[in-house]
Amino acid sequence: MITKKIVITGGPSTGKTTIINHLETKGKTCYHEISRAITLEAQKQNIEQLFLEDPTLFSQKLLEGRIDQFLDAAQKETSCIFMDRGIPDVIAYMNYINQSNPKKFIEACDLYKYDMIFLLPPWKEIHITDNERYENFDQAIEIHEHLLETYNSLSYDCIEVPTGTVEERCDFILNKSM
After folding, report:
1. Which domains occur in the chain, in start order?
2. Which Pfam families does the entry link to (predicted)?
């Protein structure tokens, strides 16, 4: 059985985690975002925002974690796996902060290909900031644009998920991905 690897991506505070959690309650296999764990680990070492202080190191850790998730998903025997962000997100965020992308980042995007990409648009009504999510709404819009541009440049056709209840958004994703 070939497992479809499906990415749910979008800028900060667009509902990705809520959707992933809801898909899990429906019995779907999901991989969670790893950037919060990396940020929290750095904060334990007195680095408030690793992404801002050392974006290349932060991005390298993300890349390694997302490759691990991709490889693990390839071993699962299920029809599809939903992933909170994909490897190209690393490039999009590096582009957002005007950092060059190491060659291995681009190579990883070429080597590890996803089957579908669902892109959540910026949504002002649900946008919040916290200790790990520091971007304001205008920055979220800019990140969204970088995500769309990055995935498109890698020959992905992003499917935009309409706003609505978590159930409506999950139903939309499930109907398109099955």
Report:
1. 4-173 (3.40.50.300)
2. AAA_28 (PF13521)
